[in-house]
Amino acid sequence: MKKNVVITGSTRGIGYGLADAFLDLGCAVTISGRTSASVEGAVSNLSTKHDAERILGQVCDVTQIEQVQNLWDATVAHFGQVDIWINNAGMNHPRREFWKNSPERIQAVVNTNLTGAMYGSQVALRGMLDQGFGGLYIMQGLGSDGRYVEGMTLYSSTKYALRYLTDALAAEMQGTPVLVGALSPGMVLTDMLTSEEVRSEEDWEATKRIFNILADRVEDVTPWMARQILDNNRNGIRIKWLTRGKIMGRFLTAPFRKRDLFGDAGG
Fold first, then answer.
1. Would you state the torsion angle of the CA atoms of residues 31, 33, 38, 44, taken in this order, to the nearest 10 degrees?
2. Residue 264: per-residue pLDDT
3. What gap in Å lies between CA 38 and CA 137, rounded to an integer?
4. Distance CA 20, CA 150 (A)
5. 234 vs 169, 226, 244, 250, 261, CA distance in Å?
6. pLDDT at residue 267, as a whole number
7. Which residue in 22, 37, 61, 239 has a CA-CA distance of 20 to 30 Å to 43?
8. What angle do CA 123, 221, 167 make, to 5 degrees?
9. Which of 16, 119, 137, 155 is catalytic?
10. In sequence order, which residues have a C-beta less than 8 Å from that of residue 265 and are 6 or more positions away?
11. Model pLDDT, residue 218
12. What's the confidence (pLDDT) of residue 1?
């Protein structure tokens, strides 16, 4: 059965990869981003390989509740219902001590990563409870497990909060026809992770060595995650790509299995 999927922040990176994967699996997808140019570009690119009738583009700044509600309403008007809603939109920042971040940057990161996810969750849960079905998934990330990473206190604090939000919402939805779950893609090579703006140049070579052991490309991770989401019928699930066992296995085989994820990008 075809599912209608809404993904916030889906004009690039993991969000775009998930959109592509869901379309490959026969779903209809609503693409969203903060600017009309980014949305139109993503829709145009996806339409070259998928049925354009299964793709809807909608501008949405997740920090604006009215735009988040419009994202839901536009999808329902176009496709009839929302089966899956994914809170993916996020904002990173350069690695630095927390006290060096400006008030404007703190506000922007918290508003996008945390408030935006809260708005998306509120709109999706209300709509899904009204229609009597649906699944809400929240993208987690660095810091969700509580692990400290130098220079990432601001970003990781929002992701740690998202873990609590996801678990609490799953508890609230217990006994209802609505599912809530977490998505944990692990280390995925996107510009959010590797751009010159956010990376630390002084230890970039060491960082690349770790990435070559643990990281994956978007096109490797997102098809698996999309299938897991479509197959899921359990509330409170955590769909995790980079498991502890996989991490151990990669470190053990690293001396014999050379991976170069940056070779094609010249990074």
1. 0
2. 46
3. 23
4. 33
5. 14, 15, 22, 29, 34
6. 36
7. 239
8. 40
9. 155
10. none
11. 86
12. 63
pLDDT value, residue 144? 82
User: Structural domains in the chain?
Assistant: 4-202+216-242 (3.40.50.720)
Q: Which residues of the chain have pLDDT under 70?
A: 1, 190-215, 242-244, 246-256, 258-267
pTM of the predicted structure, to 2 decimals = 0.87
Per the CB < 8 A criterion, the answer to whether 19 and 7 are in contact is yes
Distance CA 94, CA 112 (A): 16
pLDDT for position 200: 54
- Looking at residue 20, its pLDDT comes to 98
160 catalytic residue (yes or no): no
Q: Which residues pair with 7 in a beta bridge?
A: 31, 86
Hunting for tokens 């799953």 — which residue is that?
A: 170
Convert 158-186 to b/e letters by CB count within 10 Å (16 or more is b): bbbbbbebbeebbeebeeeebbbbbbbbb
- Collapsed DSSP state (helix, strand, coil) of residue 58: strand
Given a contact cutoff of 8 angstroms between Cβ atoms, the answer to whether 7 and 15 are in contact is yes
Written as one string, the DSSP assignment of 136-170 is: EEEE--TTTT----TT-HHHHHHHHHHHHHHHHHH
Residue type at position 43 = V
Buried b (16+ CB within 10 A) or exposed e, 123-141: bbbebbeeeeebbbbbbbb
90 in Cβ contact with 141 (< 8 Å) = yes
Contact 168, 138 (CB under 8 A): no
For residues 68 and 121, give the distance between their C-alpha atoms in angstroms, rounded to a whole number.
Answer: 10
The whole-number pLDDT of residue 266 equals 36
Cα-based angle 198, 251, 242 (whole degrees, multiple of 5) = 60
Alpha carbons 86 and 228: distance in angstroms, whole number? 13
